[in-house]
Design brief:
It comes from Candidatus Kuenenbacteria bacterium RIFCSPHIGHO2_02_FULL_39_13. It is found in: Cytoplasm. Keywords: Cytoplasm, Methyltransferase, RNA-binding, rRNA processing, S-adenosyl-L-methionine, Transferase. Its main location: cytoplasm. The chain is 38% helix and 18% strand. By secondary structure, the protein is α/β, with parallel strands linked by helices. The longest helix is centred in the N-terminal third of the chain and has 11 residues. It is elongated. Bound molecules: S-adenosylmethionine. S-adenosylmethionine binds next to β1, β3 and α5.
Length: 301
C-alpha cells in the first residue's frame, strides 16, 4: 500500500489519525518485505500482531503463518480490516495493554480452534510495527508474561538502541530486555517509509526470548571451602530483582551505592560490589545483566 492509497482510505473512512495512538502507517513494500523476512515465519507459527492498522503487515503474515491474532485499538481501522475478511486472521478490537495484562487469555481466539502452546508459551512470534507511545510498556508485559518465543518489532530508533545497549549505556529497559531475551537490532527504517511521516527514525529489532531463566555465577561459600569453586545455581525472583534494578537506576547520575545504601545498608552494598569484582564508584548504567544478577545474589547472601 503506497502513501496515496493510505491517504485515500483514511479520507474515505473518515479516519482522523491521532498521535496518541502512534498511527504512522508503513507505506514501503520493501520495508514490509524485510520485516516479514526477518520474522522467518513457518506454517506452524502462531503469531500475535499488535496494531495491524490498515493491514500492511497483516496481509503478508496471514499467508505465511498458521494463524494470526491481531489487536487493533482504533474502531474504524478494526472495521476496515474486518471487512477484508482475511483468512487465517483473528481480529480483536481493544487496547493490547488491557488485553495482555492481567488477562492474556482474553487474547485467545474463541471457538473451536485452540492455539498450540509451545513450551508453555502462548505465541511463537509477535510481529508488529509498535505504536510508539506504548512501546516500553508493551515490551515489558510481553517479556514478563512470556507471551511469545520471539518478538520482531519496529520501534523508535532511540528505543531500539536502549534495548540493545551495552555496558556504560544500560537503562532499566536494557536490563529488562537483556534479562529476558537476546535482543538484536536488525536494520534502520527512515521516517519517509511511513505516512504520516514521523519526526524520528525507527529500527526493527528481534528479541529472542531466553528459554531458561538467568542464573547467578556467584560462588557459594560451601563450594569455595571444598576448594571446588562452582557457580551457585540461584533462581532469581524476577520481582525482587527488578525492584533492585529500578532502585539502582533511581538517580542516574548517582553512584550505585548512593542509590541503594539507604535501602540495603551502605556497608552491605559496598561489600557486595567488592565481592563481584566491581569498584565502589560504579554507576547503574555500567553493569551488565550478569553483573546485576551476581550483585542481587551477593546482596541476598
Ligand atoms: N501495522 C500497521 C502498519 O505497519 O502500517 C500500523 C502501525 S501504527 C505504527 C500502530 C497501530 O497500533 C495503529 O493502527 C494504532 O491504531 C494501533 N494502536 C495504538 N495503540 C494501541 C493499543 N493500545 N492497542 C492496540 N493497538 C493500538
Amino acid at each position: 500500500m503506497n502513501e496515496f492509497e493510505v491517504k485515500s482510505i483514511c479520507k474515505e473512512l473518515d479516519i482522523r489519525l491521532t498521535k496518541s495512538k502512534g498511527q504512522n502507517f508503513l507505506v514501503s513494500e520493501s520495508v514490509r518485505d524485510e520485516i516479514i523476512q526477518a520474522a522467518e515465519l513457518d506454517k506452524d507459527d502462531l503469531v500475535l500482531e499488535i496494531g495491524p492498522g490498515l493491514g500492511a503487515l497483516t496481509e503478508e503474515l496471514v499467508k505465511r503463518a498458521k494463524r494470526v491474532v491481531a489487536v487493533e485499538l482504533d474502531k474504524k481501522l478494526y472495521g476496515y480490516l474486518k471487512a477484508k475478511k482475511l483468512e487465517n486472521l483473528e481480529l480483536v478490537q481493544g487496547d493490547v495493554l488491557h488485553l495482555l495484562y492481567p488477562s492474556v487469555p482474553h487474547l485467545f481466539p474463541k471457538g473451536e480452534w485452540t492455539p498450540p502452546l509451545t513450551k508453555g508459551r502462548r505465541y511463537d512470534k509477535v510481529v508488529a510495527n509498535l505504536p510508539y507511545q506504548i512501546t516500553s510498556h508493551v515490551l515489558r508485559m510481553m517479556l514478563e508474561k512470556n507471551v511469545a518465543g520471539e518478538l520482531i518489532v519496529m520501534v523508535q530508533k532511540e528505543v531500539g538502541e536502549r534495548i540493545a545497549a551495552k555496558q556504560g549505556k544500560m537503562s532499566v529497559l536494557s536490563v529488562m530486555a537483556q534479562y529476558y531475551s537476546e535482543p538484536q537490532i536488525l536494520f534502520n527504517v527512515a521516517g519517509g517509509n511511513f505516512w504520516p511521516v514521523p519526526k524520528v527514525d525507527s529500527v526493527v529489532v528481534k528479541l529472542k526470548v531466553k528459554s531458561s531463566p538467568p542464573i547467578s555465577s556467584v560462588k557459594s561459600s560451601r563450594s569455595l571451602k571444598a576448594d571446588q569453586p562452582k557457580a551457585e545455581k540461584l533462581k532469581v525472583n524476577n520481582e525482587i530483582f527488578f525492584k533492585l534494578v529500578r532502585a539502582g537506576f533511581s538517580a542516574k547520575r548517582k553512584m550505585l551505592k548512593n542509590n541503594l545504601g539507604g535501602i540495603y545498608g551502605m556497608e552491605k552494598v559496598k561489600q557486595a560490589l567488592r565481592e563481584i569484582g566491581l569498584g565502589e564508584k560504579v554507576r547503574a548504567q555500567e553493569l551488565s545483566v550478569q553483573q546485576w544478577i551476581n550483585f542481587y545474589a551477593q546482596l541476598g547472601k
